[in-house]
Design goal:
This protein is of the alpha/beta class. It contains 31 helices and 8 strands. The strands form 2 sheets. Strands 6-5-4-7-8 form a 5-stranded mixed beta sheet. Strand 4 and strand 5 form a beta hairpin. It is globular and about 100 Å long. The N and C termini lie far apart (123 Å). This is BED-type domain-containing protein. One of its GO terms (cellular component) is nucleus. It is found in: Nucleus. It comes from Lactuca sativa (Garden lettuce).
């Protein structure tokens, strides 16, 4: 009996020791597997206590466990000295781990509070049920049916309606805040809007929103740090793939010359800064210093090229030549829209659209026509909108002519510019010039849309697209130099061919298409020039000697998988997969083929940047306002690809800016009601590229050119009389 008692007493103690041992093992396993331990070395100090030495800065971290190690690596000051030599990737990872830990602890606290509140609520309901709902059962039915609608323990229609009323009250409170603060309605489309609401709901009743000072100082600083971590994650890609600095020079309403700088790599676009260059635009030395500062911020070895769409006020190419950068000046559509005949045609077309969209009767009459689509449909850029609108206007030629010759239109002749509109619509020369301009511009717009891709680097397809567009324009005008040269000269002047030649030659889509490969000497010369600009010494010789192996598909370049994926894989990705036999050549090809071919990332509403460079009504200090714009624009860039940009909101002020020339009269600005517009983008306008980018260029560019008749060619450039 005594033995039984002793054995029973021993069992709990054994169970306890086993539990403690199991807990210790779990702790040790967790400790050993934590990612932070990879970056420190465990030692024992003079007192016999454990300490850790950072593998980056060699500083000793004593006590506190893994949490202090993570804070040291994450650069969070306070409890421990921040590491000054940790890599951006490790710092970003550690900060993410600390945030996860803090979030889990917060969720545990929130869950415990919620459970406590629910228990108290249940006790109140049970007490109420005992006092008021106590009665005998009168049948064998399930209690749910016997309690009736008046039983307080059953949710009633009244209580359900009350919950809907509460939701409506919350919705109304949010709406009232929008209205009171004059916040645009489309702000609710921000990916952070619902996230904000969820965070507020998760923390529970009693949460107090941050005040003006917190938003202005502390939280803005924290937000900038978070966004900077995103930029750091992109910065690590710049070393491998190289990057493109995109600059957008423009003038605000005060005629100040502002320049915005962004950086492109295949993983994303990031905004660097905005600069007021009004005082230095005429001084080449100061401009050179400005661009040198930007290059230094990005890293000279990381920069492959600079792309700009506005260099009219200074010789940017000469300045950047001093920095050893390759420069691209993508202003094709701007130059084309400034041709005299195109400019005159666009002005006449805009008079028609302004008349239609500023008078109710013409717009209503046209909308009743079968198969009607809105004339004005915005493109990706305001210059693209010009030619898209010309195409749309030409498509509505019959509808517009039917309107102006109808009996009802006679009543409109005394209104506004009705007579002028009628004369333009009935002028056949106007329509023929519209047709020719559209035929010339359509393939060029498609080429630019190919170049404007943010998701896929398009630089490897630009040379072939230019080549086909140039040849097609010549055929369009039946090789009459006086007609096609204004267009081909612009194509030649807008693109520097060196980097495009190199990208074309290194693109497996075209290199192994022997029947159509351009064999001009300038193509291979472009490759050699880019090699000499990018590398020095033995690397230049190594690359030059191995270019033939790529051309002849030797080694891994000739593997069956490499051959099969030439037209299915992005060129830069193809080189990553199959260029490993020649690492230096692989690096060169990836850096060239990973670049963008345009500055489309700059095509945004820049009005927010005007506030940075003005002193009027500036409540934030200059640096804080810069931080605000830095956070705002980078968040928008990161979320750009997640949002379906094909849907067009007629009350979206950024898109209205692109179409204003076509729908707003200067002397009557603001009278147009945009709520009635159904400006949907043409599906073909935003059609994704085919799986084979090479086929995309071949078919989309060439198929658009249809030869003009001799009569149409003779009529082209004829001055347009407004007499019908």
């Amino acid at each position: 009996m005594q033995l039984d008692m002793e054995s029973r007493e021993e069992q709990p103690s054994q169970a306890q020791s086993q539990a403690q041992s199991h807990s210790s093992v779990q702790s040790n396993v967790r400790t050993k597997t934590d990612i932070a331990w990879e970056h420190v070395t465990q030692v024992v100090d003079e007192k016999g206590k454990k300490a850790w030495i950072c593998n980056f800065c060699q500083k000793v971290i004593g006590g506190g466990g893994i949490n202090r190690v993570k804070k040291h690596l994450a650069g969070i000051k306070g409890e421990v000295v921040a590491c000054s030599k940790v890599s951006p990737e490790v710092r970003f990872t550690m900060q993410g781990k600390l945030k996860e830990t803090a979030q889990k602890e917060k969720e545990k606290r929130t869950t415990s509070v919620t459970i406590l509140d629910d228990d108290e609520e249940m006790e109140e309901i049970e007490m109420s049920t005992v006092k008021k709902g106590k009665r005998k059962s009168t049948s064998n039915l399930h209690p749910f049916f016997t309690k009736g609608i008046n039983d307080p323990s059953q949710p009633t229609i009244k209580s359900a309606m009350q919950s809907k009323a509460k939701i409506h009250d919350v919705d109304l409170a949010i709406a009232m805040w929008f209205y009171d603060a004059c916040i645009p309605m489309n702000a609710c489309n921000s990916p952070f809007f619902q996230l904000m609401v969820d965070k507020i709901a998760s923390i529970g009743y009693g949460y107090k929103a941050p005040n003006y000072h917190a938003l202005r100082v502390n939280l803005l600083t924290d937000a900038k740090k978070s966004v900077s971590l995103i930029i750091d994650s992109l910065r690590s890609q710049w070393v491998d793939t190289g990057c493109t600095i995109m600059s957008d020079g423009w003038r605000d309403v005060s005629q100040r010359h502002l320049i915005n700088f962004l950086v492109y790599c295949p993983k994303g676009i990031s905004f660097l800064k905005s600069v007021d260059a009004s005082d230095i635009e005429s001084n080449a030395t100061n401009l050179c210093n400005l661009f040198a500062e930007i290059v230094e911020m990005v890293g000279e070895k990381n920069v492959v090229q600079m792309v700009t769409d506005n260099a009219a006020n200074y010789k940017l190419a000469d300045i950047l030549l001093l920095l050893g950068l390759h420069v691209q000046r993508i202003v094709l559509i701007l130059y084309l829209s400034e041709l005299d005949n195109v400019k005159s045609l666009v002005n006449l077309a805009s008079r028609v659209t302004i008349f239609v969209y500023n008078h109710k009767w013409p717009l209503n009459w046209l909308r009743k026509r079968p198969g009607w689509k809105e004339i004005i449909r915005p493109g990706a850029t305001r210059f693209g909108t010009v030619f898209i609108s010309l195409q749309s206007l030409y498509d509505h030629k019959e509808d517009l002519q039917a309107m102006v010759i109808s009996n009802e239109f006679k009543k409109m002749l005394k209104v506004g510019n009705a007579v002028e509109c009628k004369q333009i619509v009935l002028n056949e020369i106007f329509w023929k010039n519209c047709l020719i301009t559209v035929k010339v511009m359509t393939p060029l717009l498609k080429l630019l849309r190919l170049c404007d891709s943010d998701e896929k680097p398009a630089i490897g397809y630009v040379y072939e697209g230019m080549r086909r567009a140039r040849r097609g324009i010549k055929e369009l005008f039946k090789k009459k130099k006086e007609l096609y040269r204004p267009y081909t000269n612009i194509i030649d002047s807008c693109w520097d061919r060196i980097i495009y030649c190199a990208a074309y030659w290194l693109n497996p889509v075209f290199q192994y298409d022997h029947a159509n490969l351009c064999k001009k000497n300038e193509v291979f010369q472009g490759v050699l020039e880019m090699v000499e600009k990018t590398f020095k010494g033995d690397d230049v010789l190594n690359i030059t000697l191995n270019l033939g192996r790529f051309r002849d598909a030797e080694g891994t370049f000739g593997r069956s998988s490499a051959v099969a994926s030439r037209n299915l894989t992005r060129p830069d990705e193809w080189w990553k997969l199959f260029g490993g036999d020649i690492p230096v050549l692989q690096k060169f090809a990836i850096r060239i083929l990973s670049q963008t071919a345009s500055s489309s990332g700059c095509e945004r509403n820049w009005s927010v940047f005007e506030r940075i460079h003005t002193k009027r009504r500036n409540r934030l200090e200059h640096q804080r306002l810069n931080d605000l714009v830095f956070v705002h624009y980078n968040l928008r860039l990161q979320n750009r690809l997640k949002v379906d940009m094909r849907s067009y909101d007629p009350v979206d002020y950024e898109n209205i800016d692109k179409t204003g020339f076509w729908v707003v009269e200067e002397e009557r600005e603001g009278e147009l009601n945009y709520d009635d517009l159904e400006n949907m983008l043409d599906e073909q306008e935003h059609e994704p590229a085919s799986e084979s980018q090479g086929d995309h260029v071949d078919h989309e560019v060439d198929s658009e050119f249809q030869l003009l008749s001799d009569r149409e060619i003779d009529a082209y450039n004829t001055p347009i009389s407004q007499d019908p």
